[in-house]
Amino acid sequence: MPDSIVIIPTYNEKENIERMIRKVFSLPHDFHLLIVDDGSPDGTQQVIEQLQAEFPDKLFLEKREGKQGLGTAYIHGFKWCIARHYDFIFEMDADFSHNPDDLLRLRQACIEGADAAIGSRYIKGVNVVNWPMSRVLMSYFASVYVRFITGIDIQDATAGFMCYKRKVLETINLDKIKFVGYAFQIEMKYTTIKHDFKVVEIPIIFTDRTAGTSKMSTSIFREAFMGVIQMRINSFFRKYPEG
User: What tens digit of pLDDT does each residue of 128-164 get?
Assistant: First the structure.
């Protein structure tokens, strides 16, 4: 069985999902794909189901009822992948803001000794295409804020393009990861580092979506802002590693 699987959470990604699936399966490494869909009303699930006939035993779909949040989608996917013993477990968006070709670079970083690899927009300057300056500044200074509050040396703390070795996700108590929006990404990185795993950042170019609708909202940003403080306070009362 292949050692690598990519988790893609979806909600209304009909315009992107077929191109993304075909692109991942065209890469010169055998990746499996797990799509976790939160009841997309636009027909995303139907597109995936049609493609499952073309890509049996490598394209998987987990259906959930209603929008339950990015974090819960990934936790669901992590548990699914751990149970099937994949060695390298990836996070990636469906909208091509993350270049699927970079999956190979993230995997290589983990082969070469990292326990987790981040596709980082900010490790070498600011590598973002087609974002308005207001959003670039919000994202960049969110990572500055995270470093200040938590003390972790990660340039792109909110990045959603990741590769984890299975042992990381087996060690972390996934049921204690509570945030559901962008704070989820911060919490996962923070917890990984607190467990003394090696995390590296690999420079990528992030390109804003050209099809579909962004899921960013003020409530997601608010959760991330307040969640970092809460996470830091909670860490004073925990011992790592924790069961």
Answer: 676 667 666 777 777 788 888 888 899 998 899 999 9
For residue 68, the enclosing domain spans 4-235
242 occurs within a structural domain: no
**Is the separation of the CB atoms in 118 and 197 below 8 Å?**
no
Q: What are the start-end ranges of the E strands in 73-205?
A: 88-91, 116-120, 128-129, 162-165, 199-203
Residue 240 is assigned to a structural domain of this protein: no
CATH of the domain at 58: 3.90.550.10
Evaluate whether residue 85 is within a structural domain: yes
CA dist list (Å): 169 to 124, 146, 159, 220, 229: 27, 22, 17, 24, 23
